[in-house]
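Bug report (template v2)

What were you trying to do?
Predict the complex of my protein with 6-O-phosphono-beta-D-fructofuranose.

What happened?
Run completed; filing so the output is reviewed.

Input:
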Amino acid sequence: MKIGILTSGGDCPGLNAVIRAIVLKGTSAYDIEFVGIRDGWRGVVEGDFFPLTRHEVKGLSKVGGTILGTSRTNPYEGDRGGAENIAKTLYGHRIDGIVAIGGEGTLAAADRLSKDGIKVVGVPKTIDNDLRATDYSFGFDTAVNIATDAMDRLRTTGDSHQRCMVAEVMGRHVGWIALHSGIASGAHVICIPEVPLSITEIAALVTSAHDRGRAPLVVVSEGFKLKGMEEAYSDKGLDAFNRPRLGGIGDLLAPEIERITGVETRATILGHIQRGGSPSAFDRVLATRLGLHAADALVSEAWGHMVALRGTDIVRVPFSDALGELNTVPLYRYEEAAALFG
Ligand code: F6P
């Protein structure tokens, strides 16, 4: 059996650990031959492959990024030819099937290709932890650790100057990174897309923390929208206060918090630092286990399925289970954290 492996969508710590585990188990236990596919679906569409042996994956579990490269190419868009073109390319290189490691968009393409006859096994990946078919996705724990470390640092400088510190973390649609890093770092306010708050509510929590002698820490997901001002976000040029858009929501909140509370406030946007560097031990183990089970799924010909974490077990689920609704933060989880705001 000859299998191509690709990584697609935004990168994520742990991708290399998955690739390593698939290749190690696939070659030693099942005698599978592997090729790496460069830059996600682009590499499949263009036939950009290279041999992937035990040698190429040596020592990779601790290495961030992806040795395969990644892109957000959709094989069905433009003149890429969809499943027909991919089938032709794979046949030409005598490749029997693909392991696609990616998030929602990647798995949606994998699902469609699979229905169109391409043999695909999936591995879920996202630092946002927003895929509902898996309890946790690798990359998330690393991102939370990076964000927590950054907030611990923001707190000491905030304390020294008696400033309010606003930290913006990733999470376009869901607030898992903000929730977990906010709890871990003892934030006084956590703002997530699932729970709209008004600037008045945020300012009241900041004032209360300040009055208790604390340097207030506000953690905000990039996808958070202020209550009552949602329409303002549809205007591309202006922010919710009719000013030219500066950047992220953190930059929007900081001056308003300062204006209302009188507490000097600074914003930090953590950005792609959360996705870079070495995976945490938890993510290395999770990614490795997913890779090992993906190799098993190949020999079982479990096409159209992805491997996923349920409780402490790795299971196989159909692609369709991972699509549609996102894994959002339930209200009770937010309320647990809010009980600590004071
Ligand atoms: O989906 C993961 C994610 O990290 C989001 O949290 C973030 O909004 C996005 O990717 C950033 O994407 P890009 O790297 O394309 O700017």
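What did the reviewer find?
The mean pLDDT is 94. The CA atoms of residues 87 and 341 lie 55 Å apart.
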